[in-house]
Amino acid sequence: MSFEDRELPFEFDLLRDLTEFHGPPGYEDRVRGLVTEALEEHTDEVRTDAMGNVVGTIEGESDYSVVLAAHVDEIGFMTRHVTDEGFLQLDALGGWDPRVLRAQRVAVHTEQGEITGVIGSAPPHTQDDEEKESSREVHDVHVDVGRDGESVAELVSVGDLVTMRQTTEVMGDHVTGKALDDRVCVFAMLEAARRIEDPGVTVHFAATTQEEVGLRGSEALGADLDPDLAIALDVTVANDVPGFEDGDQVTRLGEGPAIKLKDSSVITNPKVNRRLRAVAEDAGIEYQLEVLPSGGTDTAGLQRAGGATPAGAVSIPTRYLHTVTESAHVADIAATTDLLVAFLEEEDGGTDYTP
Questions:
Q1: What percent of the chain has pLDDT over 70?
Q2: pLDDT (tens digit per residue) in 2-16
Q3: Alpha-carbon span 159 to 285, nearest angstrom
Q4: pLDDT of residue 169
Q5: Architecture label for domain 3-74+178-346
Q6: C-alpha 241, offset from chain centre
Q7: C-alpha to C-alpha distances, 342 to 99, 120, 199, nearest whole angstrom
């Protein structure tokens, strides 16, 4: 029996919906609705702020508060120009590698509904060696929606959003698709909210916005909530594929969630790190340590937004980040939820995280 045919250790339908729904920075509406619905089932209060952050709160036995946050936006594009011939030119929302965009299918979100487009790629027969080796920029990309210029002008406007069109599938021991960054962590957070009962402290489960364009949602949220402790959730690089030395892999799939020590935006609180590791060891949860050379996460926004806040982070190792084939290990996803639940169930507000 293949892995695809056997029962997964979590609700795959919810994960699939979270990742397949479209929600680029600033326009996370559809995913926000799905998250709100899930949080309403398992928290005492759900609210949305002016940035679009969604927070579901479980009131604990004390006023000490912990925020568990994962960002809900995905990298995408905004239409910056429609040519007379009917091709769309794009402006990036988040960090794209133009090399992965060629010949991809996209969804164009117009006021009249969603239409399909493709990112054009000239056939190799018509390219010289220099063109084949050239590194194009996102500004060079065009979207073909299969209509003449007059028809496109009636359908598409400057500012219309464009997202990648892709399904989420189980592939052996992995789940693969678009927007696992960071919807797979949103999923783990929702699973933790479902499983937590009568916590000793108040827990805010937060789906943050606009992380991919500068941690904007988490900075606003941190100031508004002013938590006593913050734990951010995000994917991290897993370069455990051919072509990378061991020291450059960062993490490996199937070896458990990663406890972040640093990335380019944050050095996490050492005492929070140690407690996460102790909880994992006591619960028999395999984990790995993450030192990410570049890239930032909501951890930084939460750590500094409302003054100094002790902050830690748990990451799900993921291959092929910022592509439509992001891939995470089923066991790592399940173990991440286990670690979050164990950590929150033990938190009583009595630990001094001051360095």
A1: 94
A2: 445 557 989 999 999
A3: 45
A4: 96
A5: 3-Layer(aba) Sandwich (3.40)
A6: 21
A7: 41, 48, 11
Residue range 248-275, pLDDT digits in tens: 999 999 999 999 999 999 999 999 999 9
Asked whether 310 and 229 are in contact (CB, 8 A), the reply is: yes
Instruction: Check pLDDT > 50 for residue 125.
Output: no
Question: 18-41: string of b/e by CB count within 10 Å (b at 16+)?
Answer: bbbbbbbbbbbeebbebbbebbee
Q: Could you say which of 28, 74, 191, 211 is catalytic?
A: 211
Neighbour count for residue 87 (Cβ, 10 Å): 17
For the domain bounded by 76-164, which CATH number is listed? Answer: 2.40.30.40
Question: How much is the pLDDT for 44?
Answer: 96
| Measured distance CA(172)–CA(4) in Å, rounded | 6
The C-alpha atoms of residue 237 and residue 291 are separated, in whole angstroms, by: 10
**Higher pLDDT among residues 306 and 125, named by residue:** 306
Contact (Cβ atoms closer than 8 angstroms) between residue 257 and residue 315: yes
What are the residue boundaries of the structural domains of the chain, listed by start? Answer: 3-74+178-346, 76-164
Mean pLDDT score of the chain: 93
Q: Is the peptide bond before 73 cis (omega within 30 degrees of 0)?
A: no
Please confirm, yes or no, whether 211 is among the known catalytic residues: yes
